[in-house]
Amino acid sequence: MSSIRVFRDEVPTLDVPQMIEVDRLMTEFYGITLLQMMENAGRCLAILARDRFLDGSPAGKAVTFLVGKGHNGGGALVAARRLINWGAKVQIYLSHNPLELNSATAQQYQTLSAMGATFSTAAELPSRLEGELIIDGLIGYRLMGDPQGITKEFIEWANRQAAPTLALDTPSGIELTEGLVHTPAIKARATLTLALPKKGLYDEEVQRYRGELYIGDISVPRVLYTKPGLELKVPDLFIESDVLRLP
Fold first, then answer.
1. CA 22, CA 32: separation in Å to the nearest integer?
2. Are 186 and 209 in contact, with CB atoms under 8 Å apart?
3. Taking Cα atoms as reference points, which of 59, 85, 76, 8 lies closest to residue 247?
4. What is the pLDDT of residue 170?
5. Pairing state between β 165-168 and 89-94
6. For residue 224, what are the contacts with CB-CB under 8 A and spacing of at least 6?
7. What is the mean pLDDT of the chain?
8. What is the pLDDT of residue 142?
9. Distance CA 180, CA 6 (A)
10. Structural domain boundaries, residue 128
11. Element (H or E) spanning 215, and its range?
């Protein structure tokens, strides 16, 4: 049985500066570390992958991860670790050399390496993917301009595949401050946003790229949303489930 619930009440949204402030308060005021948030994001992503796309049973099913060097990539690597533990056949493609990963993402890479996980590059992408799911962990909500280089190549490759793509926080190539779709951008079957949905995800054009919208619990204290600069009234979101479907 799926652990995902549908939340039908109104949920407030965040713009990008507000999300940056949420991240700052989490670490500086509440002492919730980046690694804790990353672990929660990856856990929710793995749950959504399992229950929405893998029929509740990941064992033996093929999942391909496209991983960037930033925090978005780190959350995807957490999900990869969990799906490996659940028996999935995971293939991880890195957009950057492991030495270029940021520190938190590099730590996730090191853990997976110790588990015996294998990592590949864009040069090793198959022209046609045989598998159940692609997970987009390339670029987070701080995108600036059109994706370039290997990241661009990964996005174009994913959009050519028959397998659905699940995006973490936002489809790579979407700029959430104004709700802009850059070229190229991931065409996701579903997107798992974090903390609260970003305003740009409700832009009419963006909705065609983000697909079904879900929200994951990264353990933001509800009182945080009452702080100056936010001042949001947030309902009890995650009482029944860590992952919710939003209308």
1. 11
2. yes
3. 8
4. 95
5. unpaired
6. 22, 25, 26, 29, 30, 230
7. 95
8. 74
9. 27
10. 5-246
11. strand 212-216
What's the number of domains the chain is made of?
1
Over residues 196-215, the pLDDT tens digits come to 999 999 999 999 999 999 99
Report yes or no: 174 and 205 within 8 Å, Cβ to Cβ.
Answer: no
pLDDT score of 1: 52
CB 117 within 8 A of CB 92: yes
What are 135-171's pLDDT values in tens digits?
A: 999 998 777 789 999 999 999 999 999 999 999 999 9
Q: What is the DSSP string of 62-82?
A: EEEEEE-SSHHHHHHHHHHHH
CA distance 169 to 184: 17
Cβ(110)–Cβ(75) under 8 Å?
no
**pLDDT surpassing 90 at residue 235:** yes
Return the axis-axis angle of helices 34-48 and 71-85, rounded to nearest 10°: 50
Q: Which pTM does this prediction carry?
A: 0.96
What would you report as the CA-atom Rg of the chain, rounded to the nearest whole angstrom?
A: 17
How many CB atoms neighbour CB 246 within 10 A? 18
Are residues 149 and 181 in contact, defined by beta-carbon separation less than 8 angstroms? Answer: no
Residue linked to tokens 């957490």: 78
Task: Name residues whose C-beta falls within 8 Å of residue 15's C-beta, 6 or more positions apart in sequence.
Answer: 176, 177, 198, 199, 200
CATH number at residue 190: 3.40.50.10260
Long-range CB contacts for residues 146-149, cutoff 8 Å, separation at least 24: 146/173, 146/182, 146/183, 146/184, 147/172, 147/173, 147/182, 147/184, 147/185
| Structure token pair of residue 173 | 């190539």
Task: Tell me the pLDDT band of 247, cut-offs 50, 70 and 90.
Answer: confident
Q: Find where tokens 């002492």 sit.
A: 31
